[in-house]
Design brief:
Order of helices and strands: HHHHHHHHEHHHHHHHHHEE
Strand content: under 5%
Mean pLDDT: 93
Radius of gyration: 21 Å
Shape: globular
Distance between the termini: 52 Å
Low-confidence stretches: 1-7
Strand order of the largest sheet: 1-2-3
Structural class: mainly alpha
Number of strands: 3
């Protein structure tokens, strides 16, 4: 019997499939419910902020509450999404309080006008949820890591409505150059179930229409290559600004309460000075404007500034939607200047900037397809490939590892800048 088992591993594969099919569906269902509740909470918070302008002036209050919550639950040194990635690639543990804390804190940030996204928070909620499932089911260390990735995929898929990209993103983002294929089935199952459950709860995914897709040829291809180069440069700048703002705040304001109070005051002043609320919250309206082919040029720098101040000061949320927003604005401006389908360039800009800051080319391709359709496939492919190659080893997540070089077939095993 032992010899038979050794020679035919099919039984072990079936056991794996059944085991993780059940676990991933359970995690996906839980992630869909939690992601659905979180998504509706974010939308309600954004609606309240739009309808009640005075909420902006409560930014310092929400900031103090966020810091107090993290200190009360002994999470003042919480590294956010970096901690989730480290938990998969190393032995770092995820506290079970991470999920509830980031959920409440992100809603508070959006309620009072902080510039942040929600998908980064979804990764933290999902990672915390996966850790909890691992403890409940008494999974070993390796299986718990798969459960963490399942949770990430489930919540990301539930919130953004892009289950294919969500399933692959969790495999790809941790170590660039290798993928955790053992988690392929679990993560895809969890992401599709999560997206399905959140859809039943009334949370729709993000989809954008490209108004004009010119026929692909040498001329259009050359323009998209130029856009990819530009996105690579801006992605490096974006990462440097975000990391620099956080470092600067911590260097000059050691007290987290003072840090977040100062950040809140700066955001209030910036909002009053620019005379619009377009740069507060996730700024999905800016993406929609860019996809329609008209956007203000200064929006590119102002969205980066608002996001850097928000996250650098200690407010909570994700970096992904601001990244998509900056990419869409950049692409629209490029298309307008060169007279080449601003709507298509906005879509390509989103995908190209996303890959520049996350270093996940496959996920970037899939998220572009799921959000904007397959008709612009050659344009997406070129923009993503160019931006990925030229963006170097910069990234949003400091614990992300580059196992293999981007430009040589060699092992480098270095962390993101």
């Amino acid at each position: 019997m032992e010899k038979f088992r050794i020679k035919t591993p099919f039984g072990a594969q079936v056991n794996y499939f059944v085991k993780w099919g059940l676990i991933s569906c359970a995690v996906g269902s839980l992630g869909g419910v939690v992601g659905g509740v979180f998504g509706h909470g974010i939308r309600l918070a954004a609606l309240c902020f739009r309808n009640y302008g005075w909420l902006l002036y409560l930014l310092p209050v929400s900031g103090v509450l966020i810091v107090w919550l993290y200190q009360t639950f002994h999470q003042s040194k919480n590294q956010g999404t970096n901690m989730i990635l480290a938990a998969v690639s190393s032995d770092q543990q995820i506290a079970l309080s991470t999920g509830p804390l980031i959920l409440v804190s992100t809603v508070l940030t959006h309620l009072t006008g902080g510039s942040a996204g929600r998908e980064g928070a979804a990764l933290q909620i999902g990672g915390s949820m996966g850790t909890w499932v691992g403890k409940v089911l008494k999974l070993d260390e390796k299986d718990t890591k798969v459960a963490v990735m399942c949770g990430m995929s489930a919540c990301f898929g539930a919130l953004f409505g892009t289950p294919l990209a969500a399933g692959i993103f969790s495999l790809e983002v941790i170590s660039i150059g290798i993928m955790y294929y053992a988690a392929l089935v679990p993560c895809l199952f969890a992401s599709f179930v999560g997206a399905g459950v959140s859809g039943l709860l009334g949370l729709s995914g993000e989809h954008f229409e490209i108004l004009e897709i010119p026929k692909f040829g040498p001329g259009p291809a050359a323009l998209i290559v130029c856009l990819g180069i530009l996105c690579a440069v801006v992605s490096i700048f974006f990462c440097l600004i975000l990391h620099g703002a956080e470092h600067l705040c911590k260097k000059h304001l050691h007290n987290p309460y003072a840090r977040i109070l100062a950040g809140g005051a700066i955001l209030i002043c910036l909002t009053v000075l620019v005379g619009t609320r377009d740069y507060n919250g996730s700024s999905m309206g800016l993406i929609e404007e860019a996809m329609e082919g008209h956007v203000r040029y200064e929006a590119l720098f102002l969205k980066i500034l608002f996001t850097a101040v928000t996250l650098g000061a200690g407010y909570k949320g994700g970096e992904i939607v601001p990244t998509l927003c900056v990419g869409a604005v950049l692409g629209c401006i490029f298309g307008t200047l060169f007279g080449f389908s601003p709507s298509l360039c906005a879509a390509c800009g989103m995908a190209a900037l996303f890959v520049g800051v996350t270093n996940c080319p496959i996920s970037s391709m899939l998220i572009a397809f799921e959000m904007c359709g397959f008709e612009a496939m050659p344009y997406f492919a070129l923009a993503i490939a160019v931006s990925f190659t030229l963006s170097g080893y910069y990234g949003l997540y400091g614990t992300q590892k580059f196992v293999y070089s981007k430009i040589k077939t060699e092992f480098i095993n270095r962390k993101a800048n």
